[in-house]
Write a structure and sequence with these properties.
Keywords: Glycoprotein, Glycosidase, Hydrolase, Signal. The chain is an alpha/beta fold and about 500 residues long. The protein is built from 17 helices and 14 strands. The structure holds 2-acetamido-2-deoxy-beta-D-glucopyranose (NAG) (4 copies). One 2-acetamido-2-deoxy-beta-D-glucopyranose binds near residues 432 and 434.
Amino acid sequence: MSYLDVIVFCILISAKCCSQDVVFPSWFKFGAASAAYQIEGGWNASDKGESMWDKLLHTQPRVAADGANGDVACDSYHLWRRDIEMCVELGLELYRFSISWPRLLPSGFPNHISEDGKNYYNNLINGLLEKGIEPVVTLYHFDLPQSLQDLGGWANPLIADWFADYARVVFTLYGDRVKTWLTLNEPFGICDVGYNLQQAPYLNDTEVGRYLCNKNTMLAHAKAWRLYQEEFKPRYHGKVSLSTLFIWYEPLTPDDKEVTELTIEHWEGRYAHPIFSKEGGWPPRIQQFLDNAAKKEGYHRPRLPTFTAEEIELVRGTYDFYGLNHYTTRKVRKAKFGEEIESWPFYGSKELGIVLENDRSWPLGSVDWFAMYPEGLWKQLHWLKDTYGVQEILITENGYVNVDDDLNDWKRMKYIRDNLEQIQYAIEDGINVTGYIHWTLMDNFEWLAGYKVNFGLYAVNFTDPERKRTPRESARYYSKVTRGRSYDYLHVGLYE
Ligand SMILES: *[C@@H]1O[C@H](CO)[C@@H](O)[C@H](O)[C@H]1NC(C)=O
Ligand SMILES: *[C@@H]1O[C@H](CO)[C@@H](O)[C@H](O)[C@H]1NC(C)=O
Ligand SMILES: *[C@@H]1O[C@H](CO)[C@@H](O)[C@H](O)[C@H]1NC(C)=O
Ligand SMILES: *[C@@H]1O[C@H](CO)[C@@H](O)[C@H](O)[C@H]1NC(C)=O
């Protein structure tokens, strides 16, 4: 036997003797996800408007690794039939994709709806439904029309109404066929990342702009949710929520417990508490903390803008399920006196005086922020149930980042397997997790990392004008999972 055979043999044996056939319930759905700017290309096709990513990467081409951009990306604007075929190969029940706001509304406003933009998404939605795959549609995945960015973008409070107007167009066009909606993908990414020079609009404004954006994303989401409730739900009976990024945080020592709770409120609570908590509004501790900081810094108003009582009510409870994006876990500790802190959510926070670390017992993925601790997902799911009492959770993203494009992506398979196992445990505990949407269907334009890292079940050849897609071992594995409705197929992928 070769070394590989021995490993496979051991997996087979352990799978046989140690697992009772764990099968996901029939209502649990498997899917994969993508996002418009990361895959579509066709940046200037037909009458499409410019997005803030188009503008950023055309005017500052060095911002993304290797000067890359999404002008062509996976060329899904032309190759969407192949994308659907891949969903079929994978046996998916859900395909999550996003609509490009400037492709549908070139000016950003509903004064003109692009006929080609409209048809593109009609074709995609109809093509999926023909194959029995349910579309899960994100209205906004980071690609704001540049026209609206020029007017202040997410820092302008009027954007809540602009977004609602856009949402109404989308619900009107596709609401008869799309039953699961996500308004915003990761408002944390829109604001905390986008105003920290890590993403468009690529602004350095973590003190003020980031928090204006925070409040406005909450209002925009709420307005879109409410208008669906009033104008569309009676006819279409769909569900609306948003996708929230949650890294799971644990205290490094018992001494770090309090600062860990503050960290969770800071990076996660600011985007979840206003919507999902019973009382609504900002998480109290972080609001207090930031108000005090602003005073000390000489501001006359809180940097995190206060919600009025009316706004708290507007935002509170605007969800039909919880959409969770989860990738990894970090340990939190107080910074040592004089310690230098790299202020970036994967490493630490200067304002909170905290440093984030990996536990030594957690294996690292291919990048240093990616610790593999699947139990973190289980704890996360419990925390969401305990903290917000959510009755239904859909995992809208979970996936493994790689730096080489090896087709034998053994670690990704293991990552999926281990996370599904923890989801299974959570379901057994009575937590209503209704589906798992893997990030991502195929390699794509990974924002400022360009094409240097990949998350895809399918590899894409970006030097090939045809953008050929090739299944990785993880794609074969996942297609067994979706059909057998169980994760114990690690031994299968390797030999096909
Ligand atoms: C679209 O952009 C490409 C560069 O990405 C350029 O070569 C082409 O001329 C543009 N097409 C139109 C119609 O402007
Ligand atoms: C961002 O702004 C801060 C001050 O607000 C400044 O200290 C820092 O150097 C800026 N960073 C970059 C990369 O420009
Ligand atoms: C789980 O969520 C689904 C969808 O909302 C619902 O139909 C079902 O009753 C829920 N199950 C439990 C146990 O709460
Ligand atoms: C990618 O495509 C290019 C151009 O067609 C080709 O030369 C190259 O061999 C392909 N790479 C792989 C890994 O298939």
